[in-house]
Each structure stands twice: as structure tokens, then as C-alpha cells.
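your task:
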Amino acid sequence: FDGFLYSIGFLVAWLVALLLVAELLRNTGKFTMADVLAFRLRQRPVRTAAAISTLAVSFFYLLAQMAGAGGLVNLLMGISGSLGQSITIAVVGIIMIVYVLVGGMKGTTWVQIIKAALLIAGAALMTFWVLSKYGFNFSSLLGAAADGSPLGDKLLAPGAKYGKTTLTKVDFISLAMALVLGTAGLPHVLMRFYTVPTAKAARKSVVWAISLIGVFYLFSLVLGFGAAALVGPEKILSAPGKENSAAPLLAYELGGTLLLGFISAVAFATILAVVAGLTITASASFAHDIYASVIKKGKVSADKEVRVARIAAVVIGLVAIIGGILAKNQNIAFLVALAFAVAASANLPTIIYSLFWKGFTTRGAVWSIYGGLISSVGLIIFSPVLSGKESSVIPDANFDWFPLANPGLVSIPLAFFLGWLGSVTSKK
């Protein structure tokens, strides 16, 4: 049940945050997030800060996608050794780099369109199939999931993951803040709104997205408990990718190799689309904001800017491969939540202030971005995510003095405060 709360967080994010900023961002008529922020503030410091923030968010999100891609291919090919899994992630990463260089934004857009259609169709088919096994009685499905779980009926109640102690409850509040506020700060999502022709189209895009996302997450509720009932926790946790393998294993249980192949293809297309979008956004931000605007001070040709973006895409892809190898045993949903925490801390406060507050200044923007970025990343480093637990990235180390697994509860209010403080103490 607590896992379903991830989905609710993402859905509410679209309702709250993007309806708030999507149309206004579109109306600025800009190209990157840094363009929006630097529109009425001093160019160089704001562009530099916004570009660094974009690269950081993209890196965290890329970690999750690369780890997911590796887990999926390892599951399909039956690769279980650490070296073999690392090689798989590297090969997948190279394929994605080539795709970005060849396909560009148009190719990425088409993959996202096709992927969305396949994802909804695949999830709907599996949902119908799972429910049919229990006579379309959702209660029977939940009972079977509880019977097959070591948690028993606690599987169906809130708190199995986030309600054990006061600390885990606070951690959930922190996670919820990151998910709800982080979506409106994700650079590759924001970049989509700069490409639509009118403000009306921006609003229409958000409404369609909310509808499709809402339906998909209702499917995921059935699929999650379906995997618990039909596959079982032991089989899921012993597979390459662990929790990340639940949906492909359920597909195999339902329809054998044919459905497994289809669902894996959909999952791979989903990862490809997100990685391509992130890589394009990060490389465009580096080329447009750091190289063209800060280093060259606007005196650079469009062709040169594109060439730099291509080189940046390769470098970002290689960094993502290394990060994906290090994070290959981590839960993807959790890594995504960390990306959202950084986006909510480093990007959203500055965007909100820039769009809605006349008194916002360059100092406020720089303090807000760097304050949110440093605090969120710093707290992640000293949290149980990196050390102190068996599930940590470095399980043998022990420097986890920050108790929460998600930094949003501290870093998001801090970034808003620093944006206000920087603005009221600056006369420029």
C-alpha cells in the first residue's frame, strides 16, 4: 500500500505544480529553464547556477534509468554476476547515446508518443488479465496478495514501509514534498512546455497528462498486488533488479515469453525515452547556457552550439553509465524520488519566485539555487541512502548522521528561505 503512495505523489504533482507554472513558462517564450530565470535577472550568475542545477537533477534521474535498463536486460538474458550486469548497463548506455545523437529532439518525441501508447495498452492488458484470474473481484486479489506475503494483512494497510516509527513517518512527509513539488522543477519536463505553440496548448497538454497518468497509476495498483499474489516476494527479490523486476515477472507469469517480451520492450522504450529527454535537456543546457551564454557571452554560431551539445551528450551519457553501474542494485523508485528532491529544492523555489514575485533579485536566485542544490545533495550524501545500511550504496561505510532518506523536508523550505533572504538583502 505504501508503494502506491509514490504514484499518488507523482499524480498530485501534475495537479498542483504544473497547472501552476506550465502556462506561465510557455508564455515566457524561452528555450531552457535558465532562459526563464535569467530573463529579468543578471545573465551570467543565474545561467551558471541554473545550468549546474539542471545537470545535477538530470544526473540523479539518469542513475535511476540506467539502473532500471540494466536490471531489465539482465532479467531477460539471465545475467546474475556483478561484472556481467555492469557490462549490460554500459552497452545499453552506449546504445542510448547513439540514439540521442542520431534522433535528436524529434526522435525523442516520437519515442515518447509511441511509448506512451504502448505503456497504457500493456498496463491495461495486464490489469484486465490479473483481475480476470480473480473473477474481476479486487478484494479477492488483495486477499491473495496478503496470503502470499510475509507481512500478511499489514501489506494492505498504510504504514508497512513508512509507518513503523516516527522517523519513517517524517521520512514519508519528506518524500511526499519532494514528489509533489519536484515535478515542476524537472528540466526535461519543463522543456516540453517551451515547444508547444500556445498557452492553450500548454494547458491542454497538462490535462491530457493528468488523465493518462491517473489511469496508469490505477493500473499499477492492480499490477503491484497482482505481482505480490501471482509471483511472490521471494521470486521478485531473488531476480536481477529485485523490486524493479516485478512487472516483467508478472508478465511472464501471465502470458509467458511473449507477454514478457512485449512488456520488457515497453519498459525499455520508456527508459530510452526518458534517458534521451534527460540527455538532450542536460546537453542543451550546457551548450546554450554555460558555453554559449557564459563562456562565449553570446558570440557563437548556432552550428557551434549544436556541436558542443553533441559532445556534451556523449560525456553526460558516459557519466550516467558509470553512475548506473554503481547504483545497479538500488530501488529505481527511490532513486527517482531523490532526483525529484533535488529538483524541488534547487529549481522550483527560483521558478516560483521568478514568475510571481516582483521583488525577486539575482542574489535571491543564486542563493536559492545553490542553497537548495548543496543542501539536498549534501544531505543525501550523509543519509542512509549512501551508508549505514545493507541496502545503502556503500553498505560497509558509516557516515549517515542525517536520519532521513529523502532530504526534501529540510532542503525545500531552506531554498525558499534563501531566495527570500537573498532578495530582501540585495538592493540591485
